[in-house]
Structures are given as C-alpha cells and as structure tokens.
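fwd from M.: "can u put these together and see what the complex looks like"

so here's what she sent:
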Amino acid sequence: MIPAPTRYARATDVDHALELLGEPDAKAIAGGQSLIPVMKLRVARPALVVDISRLELRGIEERADAVHIGPLTTWSELASTGLPAGLQAIPECARGIGDLQIRNLGTIGGSVVHADPASDMPAVLLALGARLAVRSADGVRELAVSDLLLGPFTTSLGAQELVTDVVVPVPSAGSGSAYASVEHPASGFALVGAAALAGPEGETVALTGVGATPFVLDGDPATAIRDAEIYGDRFASEEYRRELAGVLVERALARARNHAKGDR
Amino acid sequence: MSDTVSLVVNGEERIVDVEGRTLLVHALRDGLGLTGAHIGCDTSQCGACTVLLDGHAVKSCTVLAHQAEGREITTIEGLAQNGDMHPLQRAFVQHHGLQCGFCTPGMILTAADLLSRDASPSDDAIRHALRGNLCRCTGYQGIVESIRAVGGSA
C-alpha cells in the first residue's frame, strides 16, 4: 500500500534534524523498518519525514568502562561486530531480529524509540543496564532505558529530541549475558523474550513481549514472574506466556552463566 | 509535490520523478519500468521486492525512494552480465528453485547478499537468511538446494 502524502527532508546534522522536527507532525526516519510499515497501513501519517539515516551516529566504540553504540547502527552490524566479553546477548539478540533485509536497515536507536512492547533488544539493554544520551536544543540529557519506555509505542522522548548514543556498561570480569525467545512464527516478534546477565555481582533478568513495556524482574525470577502483570492475546494466553517466561528465563540464565565461564 | 531523485540502478544513473511518500519499489517499477521487483504483500513481509542497496538486500517496499538517492541499487534485471545468467540464476533453473517465479527475484537477491558474506553457508544459515522471503509453491527445498549448489558446501 502507498503511504499518505508526506514531505521528505534529509537532515545534514543533528541540529538540522532537531530544527526540522520542530514542524508539527514531523517524524524522524532512520532505517524505516518500523515507521514505513505503519505509514503503508496509514496508521502513521507524518506531514514531514526527517531522514536522519545519513547522520554520523553509527558505529560501536569502547570507551572507558562502556560500549557506545551509535543509534544508527544496524542489526547486521551489531550481529557481526566483536564486543567486549560479557556482552554476548547483544549480537545473539541482533542475529534473530526480523529477517536479513530488516537487519540490513533496521537500527538499534529506531527500534528502542519505536517502543514496540514485543521488540527484542530493549530487554537486552534493560538487563545490561544501558543508558541513552538524548539531544535537544537545550543540550544533552542521559536516561536509563527503563525511563524511556512508558507504554506500548510510547516513550518519554520529546518531539524535538533525538537519541544520540546508546551506552552499555561493560560488565565486570567473569560476567556473561544471553537472550532467549520464542517468536510468533509469522511476525517474528517475541511472544516472550528473556535477557539475562550473570556475573560476580549477581544476576539480572529482563522480559519482553509479556506486558506494556519490557521490564526488569526484581528479586527471585520465579517469584517475580508469578507476580508480574502479564497479558494474553489471540496468539498466546496469559497462562502460556507466564509458563514460557519461566522457561526462557532459565534458558537465558543458563547460557549467560556458561558465557560467564568463558564458553562460547 | 513531485521532486526528482537520482538513483544508480544496475550501474547506470537514472533520474526519476517521485513524491515524498514514494516507495523505492514504485520508483523502480512505475518510474523506471524495472518490474522484476515484485509486490507480493502490503505489509513488508513477503520479500518479493528485495533489491540490493549498496550490496545489501533490502525490501524496496520499505525504503523511501528519496532515501536511496545516490545509492547503488541492483535489481534482478542487473544480475546477468553480457547476456550470461548469474550463477544463482542458473542454479535456480537447474535445481528447480522456482515454480511460479513470483518470489524468485527476491530469493536470488537475498541469496546474493548471503553468499557475499558467507561463501559456503550451511543449510541452517541459508534457511535463516531466507526468513524474510516467502514462497507459496515450492516448499523451499529446491530454493535451498539451488543456493547450496552455488555456495559449494553441498
């Protein structure tokens, strides 16, 4: 289907993008793999699409004790780039997202700000304690991924703000992480996805696909899953999702512990 | 609302009239007459419109024509060289990689991307790469065999 009429503008730098986004009903487009499908369905009808895909917000860099991932870095790039030990969950998750064509264009920043409640990578970023740098005309603010995700397709990002950095702390030595999911066979989105980080400081687990936003499980995972607010739909009942969450958390934790021991 | 963009299609610079909303697949088919990129769905799922953008397989129904400005685009029409079919095209003929042929351009271009990164992929890798290309006739076995024949890991 053909999207509703819209205008197109290509941003030359972040300031230019922020200025263009000041227009009513303007929408930033990066890889377009979330936005264009909803434009084709005419669920989204931006008056102006601001193309940020040629900005220099791409690439992966290790600085001090964190890995900085440019928000325009694609899933393909994340799937094939070596990351410091302990961050195995990132390429593992990236390899399974969407399909090859989507991974070639889809970006980590675009996915996170789209805030699909069943998207995979936000769970990984939550388990790893990632933070985002956000630019606006007022400067840069930093926030945790959990503070960005407010609800399905809803974030705390302002209309004239752009994510400019995804900052993932490098876990301490002897840590490992993993992502396990069961996908809807047609859409590829997670019915349930679980990300786990295991290391000397303890274990963190986050779930996606089961509620309004991906979230971190507090305390003992089994108890937290029992008490969590989990929704059901025509594809998977609440009971099934809860059961599956327990299984996938165990799988993700087992693999994270193996990665921590140095197994590939 | 109409603008022009310059695309590099199969090695040639082409100028095409587009709107802001024009999808690359429509620019290729309606603007340039390159109808090898097929439209099999409305929802970015079938992969029949796959083309190579700077060598990487993308669904041309999920890229704005404006976004492709100045980029190298390869469609199925550009794969044969001097009248000789590309090895993948020959393999699809030899190994019964197609029946109705509707999904074939997308299958072949996705396979070309896969083989550019992994010269002899396993069957699992081939099937993983084809996740975004739907075939409703062959059941994929012939397609996997065609790609394996070129990949040389058979």
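replying to her w this: The CA atoms of residues 63 and 124 of chain A lie 20 Å apart.
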